[in-house]
Write a structure and sequence with these properties.
This protein is of the alpha+beta class. It has 21 helices and 20 strands.
Length: 788
């Protein structure tokens, strides 16, 4: 008996293979997105954890002006500190062959003898620099790769005002610089910014820091309170020009990596469940109508002795085979796409190894959730018929009673063609089926909207950041604070057409219990090169008093306009002042706070001082400027806006675009699966009526036009609901993408809705054409055989 049902199962699959494949592809999309998102997240998280532990990544970091090395034992004795390491850090300019603009390098000291205690480098090639040889440096692997530097290569660096030639002893990676950003940069740029490790003896001699340090890292005892350790460290470093200690979560490289993990987590939690809901809905819609058409066969099976459980098992087996196919396709696609995504991340983040995680738990969850969704969709369809008695099941359903549309109050035939009346009557006579079809197509539209919106959002981020806000061609950061006369000197540099000053002040902002460590940037009142924008992307004139903060920072501090913010200044005299919030602006990258430059200098009770300048350049003559800057000791970092835009598109925008393109392709598959199943089921239900119309003299085009008209009506009615659901999906994704470092603006414009609708209409048209071929091949004699 089981064997006979198995034969029927295989025949059903062969007969319904296009519908079964469409459902399997929808399931595969859900499995693949879950494996892709969760697998990529697991790969990054696991690699990071192992790398941090193996190379003893620090838990607390602090910078300062200068402190004696004799202070290190006191630091190590702080309650909760397991290990402490001091070092010297400085930023310098490098002159590299084949590169017109100057590159910047962060010079980091390493012990003259023995291993690093914390933040150990991972040697890629060569060896550590020798303190005895002199003039040797270990280069970060990405920087070396970008410039073709090998063991024995030389590089010219402007160290404390003197040109020095350094010989590369090897290349390395560090857990501290997985995501290496230059000061004020938005994206890593391995060609223009790198890390050079020099022996401590050489660094201390070059910067007059013998027996001293200006940077310290701590490893904490497991379970200790980081806030108490940070407070104790700040008290020790206060008299040495401490810039404020901060925990690992605020360390730049770790914070950006954490933001990426949060976005991956959001994508794997939002889209796959939506795909699984659609697959459950498709299974339910297909099985409900399939079982309704097989009602008499079920009665016959039960009359021949098959139990209700055997019937349920039969249809569950039908769903199981479809689910197995979908899971298999999804596993292969998800693994392949995940491996490709991991390759992209390997270019984006500097890990010594990064392999796509094939965690059995992820595959198990993906398969289990998909199969559960499929069975859930099948339960309702099967339970209504499986327990009917054989006599009832074998009886044909009572003839349907058709009524006039709207009770006959409107004579439709006076306004539309008779074929349109037939379509409308069929749709209104089965309101639940019609609504289920509308809902299914609306979900297809919604998934497309929920995938396509990010393209417009990325374009808005680019326009707002690089064309409306930061319009300068270059920004020069000085090695230390300079008087305002440095602005006038910058204006006299070759190729400079316009220059504006800025000052970056490290501060802690507090409002109630909330606190954030940020860089408070002072700008000219009506700056035109680097502007502050409001929520409408209009320039803001910086007020003569008070702070202008981003909406993200305002939410974290729970502060509004007029609220008093406590500003703890982390350099100079380290005073604490109160400042009102004068305005709240829109910001997409980082936690930003601005102030009128004159008001900032008054707040600090200092003369006019600046940290750097924004420049508008004559781009044809920029090489002359670069030649001068390579010999300028006061400059430590040069940010080029055109290079930043190029890198932004190459990294963040490319990664997001690829990921969303994959999801949009899956959404297109789902759209076709939903529409095609609806068309095939409608044909199965109306095959007898359509054959009757053919016998009565209707042409093939007229008969197929009825089904095409039904598809068109359902597809059109599904659009508004699909747009609304899609906007909700986009809103959930935008909230999921929101981190302290990035906010993806929600931009769902008419083009997004139009493209989503066009894809669904195209799927409806293709499905209609495929189904029409079956209508043209209808066997009128077979279909017209009565079922009584």
């Amino acid at each position: 008996m089981i064997r006979v049902l198995d034969i029927k199962l295989l025949r059903d699959l062969r007969r319904l293979w296009p519908q079964a494949l469409a459902i399997a592809l929808v399931m595969a999309a859900g499995v693949a997105t879950l494996i892709l998102g969760a697998g990529a997240h697991d790969s990054l998280a696991t690699t990071r954890e192992r790398y941090y532990e193996a190379n003893r990544f620090a838990d607390v970091f602090a910078g300062l002006t200068r402190a004696p090395k004799a202070l290190q034992p006191e630091i190590a004795a702080i309650d909760g500190v397991a290990a402490a390491e001091t070092r010297i850090e400085k930023i310098a300019l490098a002159d590299l062959p084949g590169m017109a603009e100057p590159a910047s390098v962060l010079l980091v000291s390493v012990p003259d003898h023995g291993e690093q205690v914390l933040n150990r480098v991972y040697l890629r090639s060569g060896r550590m620099p020798s303190a005895d040889s002199g003039g040797e440096a270990l280069a970060s692997a990405g920087f070396a790769r970008a410039h073709g530097l090998r063991e024995g290569s030389t590089i010219r660096v402007l160290i404390n005002g003197r040109q020095r030639e350094l010989r590369i002893s090897g290349t390395a990676l560090s857990p501290e610089f997985v995501y290496a950003l230059g000061p004020g940069a938005l994206m890593p740029d391995e060609r223009r910014y790198g890390i050079l490790y020099l022996p401590e003896r050489e660094m201390s001699a070059a910067y007059d820091l013998e027996g001293a340090f200006n940077s310290v890292s701590l490893r904490l005892v497991r379970g200790s309170n980081p806030d108490k350790v940070i407070a104790a460290l700040d008290r020790l470093l206060d008299r040495y020009g401490g810039l404020g200690a901060y925990p690992r979560k605020d360390q730049t490289s770790h914070a950006f990596l954490d933001a990426e993990l949060q976005q991956l987590r959001a994508m794997s939690r939002i889209l796959p469940p939506i795909f699984l809901v659609v697959s459950a809905f498709l299974v339910n819609m297909t099985l409900t109508r399939l079982i309704a058409l097989e009602r008499e066969r079920i009665g016959l099976l039960k009359a021949m002795g098959y139990s209700s459980l055997a019937v349920v098992r039969h249809y569950a087996g039908f769903v199981t085979l479809i689910a197995v196919l979908g899971i298999a396709i999804g596993v292969v696609a998800g693994t392949w796409l995940g491996a490709g995504m991991t390759t992209l991340y390997a270019q984006f983040f500097s890990f010594p190894f990064l392999v796509f995680s094939r965690n059995p738990a992820v595959y198990g969850i993906a398969a289990g959730a998909t199969y559960a969704a499929a069975l859930l969709g099948a339960v309702k369809a099967v339970r209504e018929v499986a327990w009917l008695s054989p006599a009832v099941a074998m009886s044909p359903p009572a003839p349907q009673r058709y009524r006039k549309v709207l009770g006959g109050r409107v004579e439709l035939s006076r306004y539309v063609r008779q074929s349109s009346v037939i379509v409308i009557r069929h749709l209104t006579h089965w309101p639940l089926r019609t609504l289920s079809g509308i809902f299914g197509m609306a979900l297809a539209v919604a998934i497309l909207v929920g995938s396509l919106w990010t393209f417009g959002s990325i374009n808005l981020m680019i326009d707002a950041t690089f064309r409306l806000s930061d319009r300068q061609d270059a920004a020069i950061t000085f090695t230390s604070l300079r008087p305002m006369s440095a602005l006038y000197e910058a204006r006299r540099l070759p190729a400079v057409m316009e220059a504006e000053p800025f000052r970056a002040l490290p501060v802690k902002l507090r409002h109630g219990p909330a606190e954030r460590r940020v860089s408070l940037v002072g700008k000219s009142r009506e700056a035109s090169l680097s502007r502050v924008l409001d929520g409408s992307l209009k320039p803001v004139v910086l007020p003569s008093e008070g702070l202008v903060i981003s909406d993200a920072l305002a939410r974290l501090l729970r502060a509004g306009i007029g609220d008093e913010i406590e500003v703890e200044i982390l350099e100079g005299r380290r005073q604490t002042v109160m400042q009102p919030v004068s305005a709240i602006i829109t910001g997409f990258i980082g936690l930003t706070a601005y102030m009128n430059l004159d008001a900032m200098n008054r707040m600090l009770m200092e003369g006019a001082a600046i940290s750097g300048v924004y420049l508008g350049l004559d781009m044809e003559a920029r090489d002359q400027l670069f030649s001068v800057l390579k010999e300028t000791p006061a400059a430590s970092f040069i940010a080029l806006q055109y290079a930043a835009l190029e890198k932004f598109r190459e990294t963040l925008a490319q990664n997001v675009t690829i990921m969303i393109s994959v999801y949009a392709a899956f959404a297109g598959i789902i759209a076709f699966g939903v529409v095609y199943n609806f068309a095939r089921i409608s044909l199965s239900e109306q095959g007898r009526e359509m054959a009757s119309l053919r016998v009565l003299g209707f042409t093939k085009a007229e008969v197929s036009g009825l089904l095409m008209g039904e598809l068109a009506v359902v597809a059109i009615l599904a659009q508004p609901l699909g747009w609304l659901l899609g906007y909700s999906f986009a809103l959930m994704m935008a909230e999921g993408f929101r981190t302290e470092l990035y906010r993806v603006p929600l931009v769902v414009n008419r083009e997004v809705f139009a493209w989503a609708s066009l894809v669904v209409f195209a799927a409806a048209a293709v499905s209609g054409l495929v189904v029409r071929r079956r209508i043209d091949r209808l066997d009128m004699i077979e279909v017209l055989k009565t079922r009584e």
